[in-house]
Structures are given as structure tokens and as C-alpha cells.
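User: Could you write out the 3D structure of this protein bound to S-adenosylmethionine? I've included everything you need below.
Assistant: Certainly. Input first, then the structure.
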Amino acid sequence: MGTVVTTAYRPTAKTIADAERIAADLGIPFISRNKRPIEALHMEERSDVIVAMNERLELYPLGKAEPFFFHPNSAAFRTKRPLASDPLIEISGLQPGERFLDCTLGMASDALTVSQWLGAGGKVVGCESNPIIAFIIKEGLKSYSMMPHLTEAMQRIEVEAADAVEYLKSQEDDSFDVIYMDPMFTEAIAESSNFSPVRNTADMGQLTGEWVAEAKRVARRAVVLKAHFRSTDFEAFGFKRRIRPNTKFHYGVIQTG
Ligand SMILES: C[S@@+](CC[C@H](N)C(=O)[O-])C[C@H]1O[C@@H](n2cnc3c(N)ncnc32)[C@H](O)[C@@H]1O
């Protein structure tokens, strides 16, 4: 099963040009919409469908009626609170101007919150191994305009459509101050999220010894893990767990310097 790209229900010159560009960039077929509803496209193409809308890209994984698209998600409210007390920023000890690698970019809500905190002197790179998710998020970060106070922080995030371990292997020792990983929970949590439509499309790969070893080599100061509160990965890989009462997930830290 692959992915095809089409236009909104009523194509415009812009959505046709966008869809053709996306087809070329991702090496996937461009198909004419022909006023077909998403359900009919799924039945006839047997593929996930990217829809080029005027204002954003939407991904409809096969069989899903709800689209996945870029949105600041939790970063929208986290960046309205004092950022120094955001749990991820506080636990990782990040300071403005530092370099942050997010190994598991997903919707980029964590990366965006951190990018806003690090400011113009900081550096944020996000790895996403699913090339379609990476593409939708990369385009969204470049073009989303509804929260102008976050525009610069969005545009500073460098998206790498790559497996985190492969990316880490290509990096020199101490190239980032903090490295973060937030793999998919194996245990589904009842939480509505803009990520839900791609829950079965995302990379379900879990932490490995090689991944942690590479992150420790590349992180100058700390490696941070977010995982379900029942996860045993904290102890298995040597992370010091920070218990957060009444939350479904915990953070853990390995100090590297
Ligand atoms: C739980 S989500 C991350 C959510 C993210 N922290 C946010 O703020 O939106 C995990 C994401 O990491 C991706 N992923 C999983 N394993 C990966 C790997 N080895 N390298 C790169 N991305 C990976 C998945 O495809 C998924 O999109």
C-alpha cells in the first residue's frame, strides 16, 4: 500500500501546482480528484491519500475519515505559559541559544515549544522516520500562519526525514546539547489528539541499546526520554525517572556532561 496525492474537491491552479510538486518531491502518483469523496478515493486507489488544500496539506490514511495535518497542538497552550516551567524544558535544563535534537518529531509540538524557548540563537533539528509524516510537518512548519508569535520558531526547526539512529550515527560527538526521544506508546492512551489519524501509520519502533548509546555519544549534556508511566525503558536503559503525579507519561534523564 502506497500514497497518492490529489487536490481539494474543487481544484484551483494553486492546489494543482502544489499536488504536482508534492508528487515529484515524494516520488508518488498525482491523481485527479474528479470530485470523488475521500472514501471513494480510498476504495479505488487502495492507498493513503494526501490532499493539497489551499491553506494546508491533509493526509487521509487508508480507511480513515479524519485527516492528519500540521497544527501547533499542545505547543499552542504550552507557549502561552512560562516556558521555563514547561516540564520538558525544565527536566532537560535547556537554556536559550542551545542545540536540541528531537529524535521523534511526530507533530513537532515538543520541538516547537523548545524552539520558542531557545530563540533565534538556538538550533532545533527533528528526525521523523515516516517520510510522509515528515513531509506534512515540514510543509506545515514553513507555511502555518495562524499563530504569528510562533512563526519564527516554526521556521527555525530543521526537519530530517530520517531514522533517528541513522541520523545520530552521522553526527559528531557532542553535536547537540540535549537529545530527546518520545517513541510511540505501545499502550494506547485515551487522549484525543491531532496525531490519532496516523497512529497506525507512524513508526512504532521502540528504544534500543544502540539508539541510547548513539544519543549519549552525540549529547553534550543530557538525553531525555518520554514514555508511558508503566514503561520499563527508563530503568532498562539507565534513565533517572522523574515521577510526575497524576500524569500518564513520565520523563527520564541521562546526564552526559
Ligand atoms: C509519539 S510521536 C512523537 C510526538 C512528538 N513528541 C510531538 O511533540 O508531537 C513519535 C513519532 O516518532 C516517529 N518515530 C518513531 N521511531 C522513530 C525513529 N527511530 N526515528 C525517527 N522517528 C521515529 C514516529 O513515526 C512518530 O511520528
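The mean pLDDT is 95.
User: Perfect, thank you.
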